[in-house]
Amino acid sequence: MDKSAHEIPTHGGNIRELAAKANCPVEALLDFSASINPLGPPEYVRAVISANISTLLHYPDPTYKDFCAAVSKAFNVDPAQVLVGNGSTELIYALPRALEVDRALLPAPSYIGYEEACAERLAIDRFLLLEDEGFAVDWGKLDESIQGRELIFLGQPNNPTGTTIDLGPLESAAQKNPQTYFVVDEAFIDFIEHATSAISLTARLSNIIVLRSMTKFYAIPGLRLGFAVAHPQTAAKIRLVLPPWSVNCLALILGAQMVLDHQYASLSRDLMNRLRSDLKARLQGFKEFKVFDGQANFILVRLVSPGLMRKADQLAAKLLHFGIAIRVCANFAGLDDSFVRFAVRTEEENDRLITALGTILGRQKSSTLPSKRSALMFQGNCSDAGKSILTAALCRILLQDGVRVAPFKSQNMSLNSFVTPDGGEMGRAQVVQAQACRLDPDVRMNPILLKPSSDVGSQVIVNGRPVGNMSVAEYVRYKPEAFLLAQKAYDSLAAEYDAVILEGAGSPGEVNLKSHDIVNMRMAAYAKAPVLIVGDIDRGGVYASFVGTMEVLAEWERKLVAGFVVNRFRGQESLLEDAHRYIRLHTGKPVLGVVPYLKNLGLPEEDSVSFKKGLFDRSRPAGDCIDVALVDLPHISNFTDFEPLLAEPDVYLHVVKKPEQLGTPDLIILPGSKNVLNDLRYLQSSGFIDCIKRLVQTGNVEVVGVCGGFQMLGRQVADPHNIESSGTVSGLGLLPISTVLEKEKILIRRTLVHKESNCQVYGYEIHHGQTTSQAAPVFNPEGDADRGACSGLVWGSYLHGIFDSDSFRGWFIDRIRARKNLAPYTDTRPLYDLEPAFERLAKIVRERIDMDTVYRLLGL
User: Fold this and answer.
1) pLDDT at 444
2) Band (367; pLDDT cuts 50, 70, 90)
């Protein structure tokens, strides 16, 4: 072995040394030198550790009773056969001291730790595993080498070749040579589908010892846990030389759960079969490589082409420039400096390896890896934490800085929807975010929209079109298909812009939803988007929520989190410094900004959560004003239709939840509804209908209905196809119209002329209702009677956004003022323009968030 071989690390996984050589942070190193399960540890690892921290106050059980019982149950062996070690390495080192042996007979190549453990006490001899024979064990030649009183180590599968052994010849050899101990190292056997363990032989044969490592398969190398199974007499000898309490309490508790976790094992093997097969095929695509068959979670390769790349250490040095570490195998006995071992990692990481190899070996023109798309995602610690507004803010900031940016939310549950110019339906929040980017709304920005129609079901809209009503269970079954469509929409959108700012939904910590998540961490992983978790400090408990959210995330999810943003803060920011230090200490992630509480921002809110919390609550203006009562329906939708009225200085718009709160308003508004029939039943049972009719009879109260509210004003609403509910329900009877909900949904943008005012109005329609009317039309031309109808002071329309028109809104309010004998409003009325709000929002957020870090995360 030449001098350079002594510089090769004895084992893989020395990430600190490798990262120093790569001149990159440890967390940035992609380590193909250590063969750890790419699935990562089971998700319950953090929870189990957290729940059992108190056990650290006591010594571990010196007999490891609970863990031994779990192994006994998992492998159907006597607990007396089980030995526990601080990793299987501790057990390997114990064998030469415990057993009556004089030498070690080691396969070449094989795990270097065998020689290191035996060298001090035993003579070392080797039996060769030949490349031409596929590195298989030649049992005949091995038998010739056996003298008695030796340790023979056999990998099942072998490290670094990945080859396995048959148990028949092993059993025969053990029976023939009772003074020779056969140590079967099954550290990687869990990765093999339908593998046969030698553990079944240990109860009958006292000279077979089986080693198991928990650290590789369960991805917990830092915890150090392994076990061995041997005949009870042999196990007793080994136990005498093992130190007491060498395994910590947490490792033992976790191990007892893991060894019985068949679901995790099955998922891991399924993943490994796919990843290993794919990586092997791609490595075979390089003519410079000879790729060996193996069944472990690593692949052995020999460099075969002439020239510079015949030496593995040179290839390893070049890969380090890409932040990738591999295992050079020159210090394995029986291998030379042309052998390397690649761990099998995740699909994305394997892609990076293959791309880097292609660049090094001249398959690609570029000398560096292609950069990822620029993306960043806001997720919340709860619903209504402010992530929609912060997404809009960052979109506007990037736009101001010359970045072509677009918003994206894979799945939105909202009753506030919008119709795009091409007739597709999408969530209103992404429309606002598109406006922040000065883009036309595009259904690719919100490919999946859920519009709840009951407590247990929603209408599902995909790429702007309804695909049907689904219960929760039905939608969960549909989600895999929906996620593929969302990914396709994202890819199409991202290809057209410099950056995409994504928004999550609810919280990534919803443990009941994580298994079928398509909007939070799984979408972030697909988009390769760092995640900022937003918390609403105004409602309290934000820092505990940050910690709690991180605690329930899997390790792969935690890696995506880049930091936190505290939102809606009122007070002196310096008072939060201790809390921010605590968060950094507890989670390892920084707080990247504190955004103040922004009152009356002037941007449409996302959903009825904000509405129900009192979004429209305002103080009554001083002096004469118009009193507008907005009825709060259980299934209210598109409440943003009325936000322009909030900006009017002479309008007092208040939300009423009970009939007695109506008082004597000048105007009653019935808003849209996602379940018109049930909301009509609610209005009847609550007494709202009788109260509204009494007020109409006074001749002083105007009543307006929009979309679902328009339908409610009529004689009846029928739902023969069970679109929203079922049956037929009588309406308020204030308009001579009737409505039938048909299967086909109307999605259309319109520009109309309001008949009485002659003002142009614009907006969009979203409804299943087909309305027949005997009332006067609201709009010109006369043929558009089904777009709206009026009778006296009662009128309604299907047009969402009718009050966005400044001229119509001003006329409408002044008409009510005239009816109240009030003078016309003389000051200039405000324009319903979101641009000032976007600019104000961007200015504040830019000042309160670490934008240097945001740009670094985006890679811009």
Assistant:
1) 97
2) very low
DSSP line for 705-760: EETHHHHHTSSEEEETT-SSS-EEEE---SSSEEEEEEEEEEEEEEEEEETTT--E
Q: Is 262 a catalytic residue?
A: no
State the DSSP string of 775-835: SEESEESGGGGGGEEEETTEEEES-BTGGG-HHHHHHHHHHHHHHTTPPPP-SPPPP--SH
Look-up of token digits 């880049």: 562
- The answer to whether 533 and 587 are in contact (CB under 8 A) is no
- Chain Cα centroid distance, residue 303: 39
Cβ burial of 100 (10 Å; 0-12, 13-18, 19+) is exposed
What pLDDT, in 10s, does the model give residues 798-808?
Answer: 999 899 999 99
* Helical (H) or strand (E) element with 501: strand 499-503
Backbone φ and ψ for 93, nearest 5 degrees, come out as -70, -25
586 catalytic? Reply is: no
* Token pair recorded at residue 840: 């104000």
Residue 641 has pLDDT above 80, yes or no: yes
Own/partner pairs for 395-402, CB < 8 Å, 24+ apart? 395/433, 395/436, 395/437, 395/501, 396/436, 396/437, 396/838, 396/839, 396/841, 396/842, 397/842, 397/845, 397/846, 397/851, 398/499, 398/501, 399/436, 399/437, 399/438, 400/842
Lowest mean pLDDT among 215-219, 459-463, 615-619: 615-619
Distance CA 2, CA 287 (A): 27
Place of tokens 């605590």: 582
Strand 667-670 vs strand 702-706: parallel, antiparallel, or unpaired?
parallel
CB count within 10 Å of CB 305 equals 14
Per residue in 284-333, pLDDT tens?
999 999 999 999 999 999 999 755 566 899 999 999 999 999 999 999 99
Residue of 231, 635, 754, 800 with catalytic role: 800
- Pick from 418, 430, 531, 533: which is nearest to 490 by CA? 430
Residue tagged active-site, from 707, 754, 768, 790: 707
Beta strands in 194-284 (DSSP E): 208-213, 226-230
Return d(Cα 428, Cα 328) in angstroms, integer.
55
Contacts of 32 (CB under 8 A, 6+ apart): 324, 325, 326, 327, 342, 343, 345, 349, 353
